[in-house]
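Quick log. Single chain, no ligands specified.
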Amino acid sequence: FLNRQNRAIIPAHSIQTATDPLPEDIRQKVLPSGQPVSDARRLLKYMRLDGGGRFVIGGRGSFGAMETGRQLGALRETALRMFPALKTTRWTHAWAGKIALTADHMPRICQPEPGLWTAFGYNGRGVAMATRLGGLLGDLVQDAPQDAMPFPVTRLDPIPFHAFRRPALEAVVLWYRALDRIGR
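-> predicted structure:
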């Protein structure tokens, strides 16, 4: 099962970095309404204020551990371009993790074997989506009818040419980066 599921996703990295808690005067210049935001680029970046008043920005991570520091620096540069008031703020936190992409950018609920259910492929939007699909998985485990689900139950199909996923994803990222620069 795990080998089939691994061939149904493209692993990617997601990174985030955060500042010290912002003083009130700076916070009023950075996301003053407190609403989280994301840009409209193909390689999107998203930002928010956390419960402690830290500014958090995240985006696509690197393909290898050696690139993570450079990618975190790029996130911080983006934040400073958008919010110059952050220039004196210390960046004190950073983290990264793997996410599961699907070829069509849609999450999946599958039953690979009788009595075994899985949900995956949140494509970087896992907090809300995993919470919702987790509830649906609970319904399915308790024998709720699949045709009554508000989300389709699909097959666990491998991505064609999965062995070439990394060079293909690297090429797509370069293409998207170029399109994002042209679109500025």
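Residues 140 and 148 are 10 Å apart (CA to CA).
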